[in-house]
């Protein structure tokens, strides 16, 4: 397969959960270091979010990285440099986002990393960290989320956006409590 075909395969990759892999934090650390080496002044902080950041949680084996910047203007200014640093994205998709910029790394036709560039200490930054920390602190709640993820992955295996939207109410409830 050529690079364009591998990218398309990664874009179209179905929702498949894997059991927690203890190597995920090390993969995050490596990516955080890679990003901070390239953007030492622009990135205020880089955090591991998503299910790969929650010990024991089944997840799509994609490392979710959240990078905090001073403003969305900074996020926009970094756009091309992030693409030059091994990420890809859809300009059209990002145009629909008001609170973040989204990028993806891939290898061999599979997604490896999602990068969410958001305003540091902004609403989305705080929400994502609150959700991660709540699940890390409450095993029963984490198990409910894991069960929901399994059910939604089987129902929306070919529709990533539907899978993500269907988790929204659970996430809102956890963040509101």
From TrEMBL:
It comes from Billgrantia aerodenitrificans. It comes from the Bacteria. PANTHER family: GRPB DOMAIN PROTEIN (AFU_ORTHOLOGUE AFUA_1G01530) (PTHR34822), GRPB FAMILY PROTEIN (PTHR34822:SF1). Signal peptide: none annotated. This is GrpB family protein.
